[in-house]
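Board notes (copied after class):
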Amino acid sequence: MSVPSTAEQQPIDGRTLIRAGWVIPIASPPIEHGAVLVEGDRIVAVDSAQAFEGAPGIKREIGDAEAWLLPGFINSHYHSGRSFQLGYSDEPGDIGLVRTFSHLGFGDLQSAQDFAYLDTLNSAFQLLRSGVTTTLDMAWGGQMTGVAHDHALRAYRDLGLAVLFAPIARDRGAYVYGDDEPFLATLPEDLAGRVRAAHLGLNSQITAANYKAEWQDLHDRFDDGNFIRLIAAFDGVMWSSDELTRAIGQWAAVERIPIHLHHAESKLEVDWAAATLGRSTTAHLQALGLLTPLTSLAHGIWVSDEDMHLCAEAGVSIAHTPASDLRWYAGIAPVVDWLKAGVNVCLGTDANGFSDANDFIEEMRAASLLQRVPGLLDWPSVSPEMVLRMGTINGARCFGLGDRIGTLEPGKRADLVLIAGDRARGRLVNPRQEVREVLVRRARAEHVQCVMVGGRIVLADGQIMLVNEQEIVERVRQLYERLWANQDPSRVQLIEDLLVHVHRHYKPWQANFLPARYRYNRA
């Protein structure tokens, strides 16, 4: 596979002027007939297009009077290489994760490594096509699976997509929440023996010492302080022991490393926490010292007022993932309540989004519409302006990067997305309609014309610029066909036998202690 040289991937020598019918800086009101001037990898100026007439040193002009220009979107919760989920039906996450992590991969290391690289690219293509310029990648793999994270990181570097790479730490919860052995002890002896012999889910465990050593090695080899940055992550309270959580938390606090984790995603988590911790998982994180301005929590659905108060007081951010939460039967996050509490809320696609397409624009639309409570005329909703902030500057602030990316302002990195406004708005639109509302209501990934990351054009006229997309997609398809063709029927049956007992384990907890914070459309 050919990869462009470093020189070919660099910003041009000189200035680039990007014109648009509407420039949407996020930090200030939209500018009609505006333009952004870029030099190297930085934004130099944002103004009306007329203000740049005769400006010196402009070597390239792109855009037109019909385009909409915004800062690149920031995907604040995402897992790369998850297109393998396309082989499964949607089901509750507590069950789906067991099934997902129990299936075997490739029998040879080379194929597994190729898959890690190629499938990371395959998924990231979708992000670029919907205007994402920076993504958090909460990454399974590494020492836990034997397939080093190098391959995923090389994929981002070759593609030109900026990444906050967060290797996941976990040391329990292969089958149900908490420790594995007590659950295995409840199984019939024959089934427990078969599960242990097959290592179902057990390759997901790592020690704190091994995690920190692997993280540091990746940081030293890949973190450039700009386009690739390493942060820390663990799966969540249920899947990470207190010992592992404290070790990562204390280390990250000393090193000033942001931490990201799953949190309050499942209704069952509430019951598990009450029964085993005697408090909410939010309160437990506070007791462990994990609630800080460097912490971001994905999902945040099943929370109390006190939980939200604790997060607001600590400066924690919440990554909202509307499509994933619906597809995994998790619920609807109380975004309006989080915002009212003063919490920074950002946005993520998680794995595949609504349409198996990781369409970030579609995710913004869903985030806005899901907060409209039926029958309450004065209920505060998530406005187009706010949802665009969630997808840009709020995401930057989530990881302490608000001074670098997330808005169109002089001095910030030149991460931009140009949308074909005429195609997005369609044949008819009231000229009084505010451009941000039209964008959130009508735009789709197919309307994205150009994506720039750090002054480099990485997508133009629908074409990925720095790697051969067609070749990669074909190789991914071939690898998947091998996976599907080589499934072991006995292992598939073992997983189904195990899931009978997983269902039985969770059954008593379904009464739940915490009601939903949203209302179904019923009398």
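Comment from the instructor: Residues 1-9 have pLDDT under 50 and may be disordered. The CA atoms of residues 226 and 361 lie 25 Å apart.
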